[in-house]
Write a structure and sequence with these properties.
The structure is a homodimer.
Chain A lengths: L15 H20 L3 E2 L5 E3 H4 L13 E3 L13 H4 E5 L4 H11 L7 E10 L11 E10 L5 H16 L5 E7 H10 L7 H8 L2 H15 L4 H13 L4 H10 L6 H17 L4 E5 L13 E7 L5 E7 L3 H6 L5 E6 L1 H10 L10 E6 L5 H16 L3 E6 L4 H10 L4 E5 L3
Parallel strand pairs in A: 1-5, 7-8, 12-13, 12-14
Antiparallel strand pairs in A: 2-4, 3-4, 5-6, 6-11, 7-9, 9-10, 10-11
Helix pairs in contact in A: 1-5, 1-13, 5-11, 8-9, 10-11
InterPro entries (chains A, B): aa-tRNA-synth_II, aa-tRNA-synth_II/BPL/LPL, His-tRNA-ligase, HisRS-like_core, HisRS/HisZ
Catalytic activity (chains A, B): tRNA(His) + L-histidine + ATP = L-histidyl-tRNA(His) + AMP + diphosphate + H(+)
Keywords (chains A, B): ATP-binding, Ligase, Nucleotide-binding, Protein biosynthesis
Chain lengths: ~425, ~425
């Protein structure tokens, strides 16, 4: 009976104060995406080990919690390596399960399928401050829509959500993998070095344009190309004019359609947005994952480094899994990061103020108790949260505690 | 790249139609318990293997999904048995994690602590129709309140919830472990045979009072005692009169306080209830788990055999885990069962009717697209769910599909 009190290494208990904010954000996410025609779906936390180790998960595949085979299938004596012992594992993201879900259920799903998936994912990562081995992920995906309506949809829905969370100002940065490639081609970088170039470019935020130039030079790229490359970034504006500049300048390297596509997205979002934010064309935006094939985007909040959500088009991934090519656009909300930011700024969940507590005398008659319970029922019907508790010896401390939980009205009840 | 399409054995993908109902029920649960002063909390899905195998989980401990140790800790060659390979497992219920949570965080929690915990639990059970190896559990617990206010609270809150779900009529059956014991003592059964007697009594629903008598006789109990026992059940009414009858009849076997306690609960719930249900004193109610120490209760819905939720007082369990005696009352909602019943009766989530879809001509100009997207934004602000999709070749089929998803208004958009 020696109970271990702490959670398993790297995981955490979530206390009421944080849960209130989490529940509020979850409710807001579901409500907002529903308004945009998204439907919720869910996959199990446990996934086939084969699916988790199919090379689509990158480094995350090193971080799998593996689950032991059960019963007769488990042969400890014969086992030589991990895979002899396991048949499944905890998912490290929601994308692999989404692909499996889609391939299993496509016949019963509308097309395009606009999915909202929220769920816990698990990574046996090195424990770090503020990063846990179980955390909530929240993915929005549109499967089966090859048009820019998908990008417009996920960007408008997600910005509407962030707007509702009272962040003072935020921005959506947008780019397109095909712009990135065209700019590299225009500058004369060899195609096989693109990934290397983009990894260096991705450090812009930290080392600046000059730092990027220096690192490219250090990697042995031709000076002339680097200068051409850097000059491009210097010249490009952050709105529709930037896109126009690219369309003209990169002629022969960039399909005009791709530029027009970007213009329509920026224009539609700017015209139709309901939240207060800017959409910024940012040709330095890379986003790490190599599976993106078209537009890519990120949400940044002023005063906070790093993004609180991002995504893009990945038209080739589902087909690799399912055998059926399926255009796809996704946006992943940084749920844990948003909750952390709200906690830090002492965010109050709207409507949580209307809380009342009854403090009962220990010797209250059962008639009087019935009376209070009845009255509380009526107040709840009228929309209040009502708590009923017995008085403790240290009434002063008890009242302070109730106040700290948000009970502004506290009524003491005695026998008459 | 051979993706396994089906979920892991015994687990399931949840499609949008079911998820809509699940999300609705989850929202209602959170809202209702919040009104009663409960706060949400969460524990990780992964728990120390020591805690999961501490003999508090009964048969569920045979059904644990065990998680392999990672890195240097995993020594396959030296392993002799399962426990050499694992350090944690997936939780099979929410009670063990609640006890650990409470012992870890009691200093930061109010007293009494009124907790709502919803989360997935995992059992490597034999796959059966309608039962899955991952399912949602939903537990309400009041820790630290020794009074019947705890029972009144959980019963009123839970009945309010069930009432909101439009079940035509339902009942709450209530009993008390101490009544069960007093009745057995009064009838002359020896104390060490109580558990055996209760197991037989628990079959009442299926075999009737006569069946219970026959089985008791078959087990070798004295005929006189059995007759006395059966006569008791025959004579007891289902309301306050039944409690009064027991108080008088069982004098010397039942503390009068225990009967008064039961009367106050029944009276308070009857007076203060906001939903349409009956609370029935049922001296044949046993509930399996041996850890109950006081009142026990179940919710039954007319026309459905089995309960959709149940619980009781378990004042001795937390102390066994934590070393600090803590009174506790809990109610577990049969979440999966409720969702199943709602699905079966074709339940429509309220407010889901207000859905509109725009069907766009494939050749729509980007100006016109911006116009539609803008209009949709305004309609969403006014509370509608609005979906925008491009027309497909088979427009008729596409419209039917949208209608089946609840889009009652479908507007086709072409260039003027």
């Amino acid at each position: 009976m020696q109970l271990k009190k702490k959670p398993v290494t790297g995981m955490k208990d979530i206390l009421p104060r944080e849960m209130e904010i989490r529940d509020y954000v979850i409710g807001l996410i579901k409500e907002t995406y529903k308004e945009f025609g998204f439907t919720s779906m869910e996959t199990p936390c446990v996934e086939h080990i084969e699916n988790l180790t199919s090379k689509q998960g990158g480094d995350n595949e090193k971080l799998i919690f593996r689950i032991l085979k059960r019963g007769e299938k488990l042969k400890i004596n014969e086992a030589k390596e991990e895979n002899d012992l396991v048949d499944s594992g905890l998912r490290y993201d929601l994308t692999v399960p989404l692909c499996r879900f889609y391939s299993n259920n496509a016949n019963e799903l509308p097309s395009p399928f606009k999915a909202l998936q929220m769920g816990n994912v698990f990574r046996a990562d090195r424990p770090q401050r503020g990063r846990f081995r179980q955390f909530m992920q929240c993915d929005i995906d549109i499967l089966g829509d090859p048009t820019n309506l998908a990008e417009i949809d996920v960007i408008l829905a997600t910005s509407t959500l962030v707007g509702k969370l009272d962040f003072e100002s935020f921005a959506i940065r947008i780019n397109d993998r095909r712009f990135l490639k065209a700019m590299a081609a225009y500058s004369g970088f060899p195609e096989e070095s693109y990934d290397q170039v983009f990894i260096i470019l991705d450090k812009m935020d930290k080392i600046g344009l000059e730092g990027v130039a220096a690192e490219l030079e250090g990697s042995g790229f031709a000076k002339e190309g680097i200068e051409k490359y850097i000059a491009l970034f210097d010249a490009i504006g952050e709105g529709l004019d930037g896109v126009k500049y690219c369309k003209d300048k990169l002629e022969g390297f960039l399909e005009p359609d791709v530029a027009d596509n970007m213009s329509t997205i920026i224009e539609s979002v700017t015209e139709a947005k309901t939240a207060n934010f800017r959409i910024i064309f940012d040709p330095t935006l890379v986003r790490g994952m190599s599976y993106y094939t078209g537009p890519i985007f990120e949400i940044c909040i002023d005063g906070f480094s790093g993004s609180v959500g991002g995504g893009g088009r990945y038209d080739e991934m589902i087909g690799k899994f399912t055998g059926t090519p399926t255009p796809a656009t996704g946006f992943s909300i940084g749920f844990e990061r948003i909750v952390m930011l709200l906690m830090e700024r002492g965010f109050q969940v709207p409507g949580s103020a209307d809380k009342k507590a009854y403090l009962l005398d220990k010797k209250l008659s059962s008639e009087k108790l019935v009376e209070v319970v009845k009255k509380a029922g009526e107040e709840r019907k009228a929309g209040k949260s009502v708590n009923i508790v017995y008085m403790k010896k240290n009434k002063k401390f008890q009242k302070e505690q109730l106040q700290s939980e948000g009970y502004e009205i506290i009524e003491e009840i005695y026998n008459d």
